[in-house]
Predict the structure.
Amino acid sequence: AQSVTQLDSQVPVFEEAPVELRCNYSSSVSVYLFWYVQYPNQGLQLLLKYLSGSTLVKGINGFEAEFNKSQTSFHLRKPSVHISDTAEYFCAVSDLDGATNKLIFGTGTLLAVQP
Amino acid sequence: GAGVSQTPSNKVTEKGKYVELRCDPISGHTALYWYRQSLGQGPEFLIYFQGTGAADDSGLPNDRFFAVRPEGSVSTLKIQRTERGDSAVYLCASSWDNNQPQHFGDGTRLSIL
């Protein structure tokens, strides 16, 4: 069985500061990894994904994440945040060998950008 | 092009009633997923369709929940004898196939009084 842990339920940060949102996963098989963003009263929007290849993945809105297999982590980073980045961020995994490829989500991290 | 469309956006009903939630996926997407998101939680998988068939319904919590996709496009999630614990946001996602990233709708916020 797979699981995703997002240890930080909320991360406050000042505008233009760097930020890292942590994600660790557990799986007995190879996985795909994703970060989604959810703005209030909206669905989830894909920020970036790791399927294979380079472990540093760049996504939309200036975000990037690094896959670390030995530490089973996929932390999300942005060098300088904006007020508009305030949202809930979800890390997710799916089973590479499964027929369904359903997503298993973490509990989310609220990024609160302050002026 | 249009994204995943879910209707209604909000649904309020009384305990014990029957509800139907609709999902219109992106045109051409053969894979369709339903998830449930409770307050303060990440989405949880309910059911997966490949075409018209439910390929994986392992996430449905009990037999009050049922979903169909009769023509391989629009899907309906049906909940019988609703309970207050069913209150959540129900999200639908679709993809070209089960190896492609999923695109989510804005969800239906279901409130059971």
The two ends of chain A are 41 Å apart (CA to CA). The CA atoms of residues 12 and 25 of chain A lie 23 Å apart. The mean pLDDT of chain A is 93. Chain A touches chain B through 22 residues (CB under 8 Å).
